[in-house]
Amino acid sequence: MATGTVPPLPEPSSALSGTTRSPPRSSGADPLSDTPRQIRLFWALLAVLTIIRLCLAANVPLTPDEAYYWVWSRNLQPGYLDHPFMVALWIRVGTWIAGETPLGVRLLGPLSVLPGSWALYHAARRLLPSCPWPASGLKAALLLNATLMLGLGAATMTPDTPLLFFITLFLYTLSRAVDPELKPRAALPWWIGSAVLLGLAFDSKYTAVLIGAGLGGAVLTTGRLRRQPGPWLAIPALFVAMSPVILWNAHHHWASFLRQGSRAGDWHPARAVQFMGELIGGQIGLATPLIFVLFAVGLWACLRRNRLLAWLALVPMTVFVTHVFGDRVQPNWPAVIYPVFALAALETGWRIRWPVISGLALTLIVCIQAVFSPLHLVPHRDPVLRLTGGWETFSRQLALKARGEGATALAAEDYALASRLAFTQNILPVIGTDPRWHLFRLPAAGSAKAVMVEEQRHGTVPEKSATLCREVRAQPIRCYTVSPPGFTIGVQLPKRS
């Protein structure tokens, strides 16, 4: 499945065909009709989920990576070493509205799910011609919202958050562009809009290019689309939308492209089985088990019935499966395909009630644990606690200790640690010594008298250095070595106002 090509599909049942929509294939489909009452209930559920996500966003401390993206937002530019700029722009808007708080950093995440769900709801009308509408739209939006990837991911702010938003909008405009009832001239604005949204998704995370490659495969293998001017005239619009990131890379020796592209050159086939197991296990966890089964079977169904969705899903999946022969695939990388999977799952004709209920229940359990920690797990078994716990007390103690020893700054080489210290405390400025900071327009710190803070590894403590631990409920989560004050040269990170 991962390495094969998409076979020619019968045009009458393809989402790219011009035939009349057929009735549902399975008498066992959910009795979810298009009554106004059920639609109101769906949007009410979505509103409740949005409120829950906003509460989660406000009450869970930032992860170190989120603090890193917050630093980006204090220094907006068209690109960064690790990712494009969109996550920084979203944080800048959110903090302008809600202040430099965890809620401000994450604000646009929960809010973006509402228009994103609307877009997926309407995309299903045209991309799933053999499923009942709007029941198909309701089901697709419910499935996506029930995944842990979106349920918890929408309450955090990472590049995946704007990526999922723009991909769902892209699927809507694409569904209009490929509508066989539209003449090529009428479809042209929708093709241009699809290209712009795909470019904005690329400006969020580079994995969006895989969806573009899948769309290219669908166009080239479908005569009706290949002969239209729309797909070809959309290519310049795509590059215009991508141009800020491309130009930033061109002016910085292609630093970000080389960093991300270098991962494709690894080759460790002996560990492929391990990496494949991690990939599958990660997706079972992030999709939740029953929804994962629906996604997998839906992809198989699309190979026979829906050429467009098959291309959009298979090209990224092929890349990720191939990547396991060189290195592990991070669990969040396939997030770019989740909106496509939510549509593809409906091609099974299966019921979605229990997958949705189980997904929402698992997400709710994770959210309760993240906020209230009713299960007093040891830190290394609680990933949310491990990333977010104890930062406020640790940062304040560290800064007061350093100032008491005559230091005028805190210094850290690790970008995530430096960013988290900059966001959490305002007692001392923070200096980043990692070379990546020189790609920012940040002021040089000169020669500051700073203590160097490093995560303690293997239990060793350098001579004359002290140890300070980040703790929750008197249990250490991570310990750090703190060197005596010395002169350090680096870049001064912005302070939280």
TrEMBL record:
Keyword field: Cell membrane, Glycosyltransferase, Membrane, Transferase, Transmembrane, Transmembrane helix
What is the protein name given in its UniProt record? Answer: Glycosyltransferase RgtA/B/C/D-like domain-containing protein
Q: Which GO terms describe its cellular component?
A: plasma membrane
Keyword NADP in the entry? The reply is no
InterPro entries under this entry?
LipidA_mod_glycosyltrf_83 (IPR050297), RgtA/B/C-like (IPR038731)
Instruction: State the membrane topology.
Output: Multi-pass membrane protein
Localization per Swiss-Prot or TrEMBL: Cell membrane
Disordered: annotated span: 1-33
Specify the signal sequence span: none
Keyword tRNA processing included in the entry's annotation: no
Output compositional bias ranges, type Polar residues. 14-25
